[in-house]
């Protein structure tokens, strides 16, 4: 019979998630992960297999807690364009006023160029694209689009804006200008209604 885990898994995954957001997968050392999680290297390997296993678990945690949580809070079904506007504006306010960036975006940049896209990144981007398309079709101008092409292409454009915003935030861009860019985008979309 295997030993039961004697640690708070959510706290461990949150600590690892923040280190991976800040330093990337390659940049995060086992020592960094030990400090962030409170686990010794042996416990990390025993519990998660290896650094890649911990990264995968931390990314899954980020997907559930941060991404799905943000969508549920700001752009739930039925919220339409206003929900999307609020979702985009929420990117400007990290809970700790930091700029660690998005684990999805950071991972896409770090692992970009691989033959196959990172499966966690692919799933997260798909969730965003699907959410954007769904909220767009709640708006009358997009709902009238019989084949959904307008909503599909607009969702891709919004995905590019969303990811671009996250890169610029991580790079320290002035948030006042980014806020205006978000407002301009959604004001323009609202003129289509």
Automatic annotation (TrEMBL):
DNA-binding region: 29-48
InterPro entries: Homeodomain-like_sf, HTH_TetR, Tet_transcr_reg_TetR-rel_C_sf
Domain HTH tetR-type stretches: 6-66
Assigned keywords, A-Z: DNA-binding, Transcription, Transcription regulation
A single GO molecular function term of this UniProt record: DNA binding
Transmembrane segments: none
Keyword check for rRNA processing: no
Domain of life: Bacteria
Protein name: AcrR family transcriptional regulator
Organism name: Rhizobium pisi
């Amino acid at each position: 019979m295997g030993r039961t885990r004697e640690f708070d898994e959510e706290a461990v995954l949150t600590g690892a998630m923040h280190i991976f957001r800040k330093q990337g997968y390659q940049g995060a050392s086992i020592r960094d992960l030990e400090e962030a999680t409170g686990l010794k290297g042996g416990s990390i390997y025993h519990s998660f297999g290896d650094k890649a296993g911990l990264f995968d678990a931390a990314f899954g945690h980020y997907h559930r807690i941060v991404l799905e949580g943000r969508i549920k809070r700001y752009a739930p079904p039925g919220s339409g364009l206003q929900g999307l506007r609020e979702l985009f504006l929420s990117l400007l306010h990290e809970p700790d006023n930091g700029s660690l960036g998005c684990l999805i975006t950071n991972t896409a940049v770090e692992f970009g160029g691989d033959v196959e896209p990172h499966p966690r990144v692919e799933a997260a981007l798909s969730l965003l694209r699907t959410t954007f398309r769904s909220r767009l079709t709640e708006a009358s101008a997009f709902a009238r689009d019989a084949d959904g092409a307008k909503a599909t292409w607009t969702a891709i454009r919004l995905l590019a804006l969303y990811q671009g915003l996250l890169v610029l935030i991580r790079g320290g861009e002035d948030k006042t200008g980014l806020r205006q860019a978000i407002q301009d985008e959604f004001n323009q979309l609202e003129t289509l209604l």
